[in-house]
Amino acid sequence: MRFQCVALILLIVVCLATEITANKSKHKRYKKRPAAISLDEVPSEPSSPEQAAEEPEVAPPSDNDVIDNRVPLMDPCMEVRCGAGRICQVSDDGEPECVCIPNCPVETESRRKVCSNYNETWSSDCAVYQQRCLCDKGDAECKGPQYKHVHIEYYGECREMRECTEEEMADFPRRMRDWLFNIMRDLADREELTPHYLNMAREAESNLTLRWTNAAVWKFCELDGHPPDRSISRHELFPIRAPLMALEHCIAPFLNKCDSDNNHRINLSEWAKCLNLEEEEIEHQCEELTDAE
């Protein structure tokens, strides 16, 4: 009887041990493994927010992490300013240089034509500037040495101008002084002058002695182009000559008389004499020059 009890207990122990071993083998056999991904397959998006939270985020590289070996290309002509009739061109050595414009646009409208100081009609202002550049550089296409100083008298085809009489020429400096003062005062009222020249305009309004001198100096400074060199070239006279040619037939001979030494430039002393002003009343007050001194 006792033997049967012991045998029964052993049988129960063996059965329990077998069942435990089977359960462990079952769990091990069906343990989930990550699915294999082909090189040609693209991983799918997370199916749930929880799954997305478990996956680490990969931040894009910052600017500090990227090494840029590219060298920015700079145009050598970007800061170069060439005169009329010239363009900037990069030489074989990679240096910027101003050359004569090779071709001017073809103009068909008559209003684009210009009349030169030699009383010749040109197809455009570009053609005049181009010719002056070619002669300045001694190019074979230069029509003659005199064209080194060719400039535009006015826009439109050349026309017969009435002769300026001696009486008209004698009175012209006074009329020019008044015209310059009125223009300066009008620009001051419209606040189109810099503070430097605005102050000169206000002085001229309250002081009769400065009425004409300040206006003359202001216009001289305005015409003195880039760079300011204390003189006005025939080309720089264009803004004052061309608009008046149709109305004032004396403007061209008047400005020609201002260049007393015929060097194709008018200095401040010549400008003062031309306007019948005393030289001692005129002094250089150009904004660019006074700032640099």
From TrEMBL:
GO cellular component: extracellular space
Annotated region described as Disordered, given as residue ranges: 35-65
GO molecular function: calcium ion binding; collagen binding; extracellular matrix binding
Entry annotated with the keyword ATP-binding: no
Domain of life: Eukaryota
Subcellular localization: Secreted, Extracellular space, Extracellular matrix
Keyword Lyase found: no
All residue ranges annotated as the Follistatin-like domain in the record: 76-99
Chief place of localization: secreted
Signal peptide: 1-17
Record keywords: Calcium, Disulfide bond, Extracellular matrix, Glycoprotein, Secreted, Signal
Pfam families on file: FOLN, SPARC_Ca_bdg
InterPro entries documented for this protein: EF-hand-dom_pair, EF_Hand_1_Ca_BS, Fol_N, Follistatin/Osteonectin_EGF, Kazal_dom_sf, Osteonectin_CS, SPARC/Testican_Ca-bd-dom, SPARC_FS
Protein name according to UniProt: Follistatin-like domain-containing protein
Organism, as annotated: Phyllotreta striolata
